[in-house]
Amino acid sequence: MNLNWMALAVPFFLFFMGLEYLVAKWQKKDYFRFNNSVANLNVGIAERLLDTFTVGLFYFFYEYIHRHYALFDLQPGVLGWVALFLATDFVWYWYHRLAHEINLFWSAHVVHHQSEDFNYTVSARITVFQALIRTGFWSILPLIGFPAEMITTLLILHGLYPFFIHTRTIGKLGWLEYILVTPSHHRVHHASNPEYLDKNYGDVLIIWDKLFGTFVEEKEEAVELVYGLTKPLESHSFLWQQFHFMMELFETVRRTPGFIPKIKVLFGRPDDIDPEIRDQLEKRFLSRSSVHATSRRFRGYVLGQLIGILTILFVFLLLEKQVSVYHQTLIALFILITLVNCGALLEQRQWVFYLEITRACFLILMAFPYLTNPLSVSLLLIITLLLWVYFSNLQNRYLRLVYGTVPAK
């Protein structure tokens, strides 16, 4: 059986998240909040799922550039790998810095900075939009002459290190602070305290920040670090987290007269976007719920969905080459709908019941090729009819069971 062993990354990272949680409890620190952790993992699940469909495209993109436009023909070797590592880390620094300084790039990267916690689950806050933009930056590597095989291999290893610097359980690391990006350095980067804004962009090496004047040391005696956006998002909606700044940017461009000024907005700084625009968009697209369910039953239900899609994702990735395109498509849509569903649950939305029905429909479509017995089809039709007749009653029962009451729409 041809298995995709990269799927083991899922339990690998989950293990260290669990370990960090236990260490934080041992240290008597409250570094994990339920809603934040679920929202963080939801973003990461979506990225890992969609990465399945894009990673091959990225590889062929690098290969095409290398084959047709490479300036040099660099071969694997000690010096070649060292040069590629330094080039990758250097390009990352500038991608990351510009992702904070240019609205168009920030609209994708902002998702990574929304969490008001700082732990290993935050490292999962990567979107497919970020991956697309980063690929554009890394296209310089095959143009220089590095083969696609080397680039892909190094990017996997290079992407592993940043996971371990998203933590508050590890203090300063002595002489390593002068060379590497450490948890201390990266805490500064994620902090929204004024003195720490737009600092420490490095991924593995901190030398780039020191060379280009963006390094700031974490001051242990200073005020406590505050994480998240300077204007907190205050929402766990999966869709709102992904698209809120894109909508803010689009609305700003729409209101700006003239073609050249519109382009300047796209490539301007995030600080120049009027914060009132988000408030206006929230009133239109993000109504708040008056219900705030926190019961063990509610958390257990959300956690059950999260564990379920993590399990499905792992099995899907492991057996991806044995799964038909039909089932790949349905499984991907099922996982994405479940992520939206989890966000809607955390937001206590009433329309979450419609998502539950949609998820059930996807399960039926997955099983449909195997429903060859007429009795099975008849039973399915009867269940559908009963659902239609008793829909309102079932919806209210579901909402009371999950939330304890029926929230406003």
Report on this structure.
This protein has 409 residues and is mostly helical. The protein is 62% helix and 0% strand. It contains 17 helices and no strands. It has helices spanning 9-26, 34-69, 78-101, 103-109, 128-138, 140-144, 148-160, 183-190, 207-211, 238-255, 259-266, 276-285, 296-318, 325-346, 352-367, 374-389, 391-403. The protein is globular, with a radius of gyration of 23 Å.
What's the average pLDDT?
90
Summed up, the domain count is: 2
Strand content: under 5%
Helix content: 55-70%
Give the overall form.
Answer: globular
- Which regions contain 5 or more consecutive residues with pLDDT less than 50? none
Helix-strand category: mainly alpha
Count the DSSP helices.
17
N to C succession of SSEs: HHHHHHHHHHHHHHHHH
Radius of gyration, taken over Cα atoms and rounded to an integer in Å? 23 Å
**Most strands sheet:** none
Q: Termini separation (Å)?
A: 48 Å
* Strands, count: 0
EC number: 1.-.-.-
Keywords: Lipid metabolism, Membrane, Oxidoreductase, Transmembrane, Transmembrane helix
Membrane topology: Multi-pass membrane protein
GO molecular function: oxidoreductase activity
